[in-house]
Amino acid sequence: MIKTINELPIAKKRVFIRVDFNVSVSDLENVQEDHRIRAVLPTLEYALAQEAKIILGSHLGRPKGPEPANSLLPVAEHLSKILGRDVIFPEDCIGDAVKKLTIDMREGDVILLENLRFHPEEEKNDPIFSEKLAALAEVYVNDAFGTAHRSHASTVGMVKHFQTKGMGFLMKKEVDYLTRVLENPERPLIAILGGAKVSDKLGVVEYLLTKVDALLIGGAMSYTFLKATGAEVGNSLVEESKVHLAAKFLERAKVKGVPIFLPVDHRTASKVEKKVTSQITEGPIPSGQMGLDIGPKTVESFIRKIMEAKTLIWNGPLGVYEIPPFNEGTLAVAKAVAKSKALSVVGGGDSASAVIEAGVADQITHISTGGGATLACLEGKVLPGLKALET
Question: Where does CATH 3.40.50.1260 sit in the chain?
Fold first, then answer.
């Protein structure tokens, strides 16, 4: 059993809340998109109402030691504006100075520790580092779904030092929605998968074949599947070593009666760059051209299936989303998912960015804050960060 924060005695206590503030920060040190920060507000507001002393821990980026570009200082300033109160920001996440700061906290104080990954011991789940983090607080709460698939010090190692532990409201919401769509969905349940590599999603495809009523595959990963059918894919990105596995999955889907929809046309170009000349290609992709987005007929086909769904799962962009016009297929699908009457769960990363950019985020049932964690759930894996919270 995992308790939620409102089931824990946190009043006036020092509460370590693991959050996922891994957001985009501009060169001007401004937070560019704060969906992940605002998603944690219900947990923070509840803890503040309980007059808890809040110690927030997060990572930002993949730093190799302390790097100013990956400091959480801009996030602390942004959070301070959102909360309407000062957020204390120490120069580190462990050490005597930080320990004294936490001891001297008053009820309702909020501290955001400096980037946990400035210490390599965080990702190594180092026991000494874990113990130092745990010494800062009396209660542990994990509200960082985006890192729940990682066995790091702040998500697993430090948790064993707490008798009082649980999850925040965001983590509970994420788990509840993913459990609902995978274990008790209203049917038809349709999954949309995109992204670059088949190897990243082999486990997902295998698991979803036991769950879904149809699977729509786009993005670069679709070209490995298309090649497995014997289609000519030109210079499109293909994982040659996975073609035989893709063929096996297609055959297994046929036996199970689960239709897999692949692109029937494509927006192609000779290379991946801005302002390159592109065209719509139906059928074989000629040599020298590569598929970089799904074409209009594929968009229509996908939208028809989306409109039939009662439950939708979407993870991964359907083209080279960062470079227009190769984002058009992804944006069209985002609008279709929003327009459908289905319960919709959109995975983190670019698919979450797509629904935000398309201006339809408020029409999606749930936008996950975790790309990798969502993928792990879609593979049927147990998340270490959740397992550590069990009592």
Answer: 5-171, 185-378
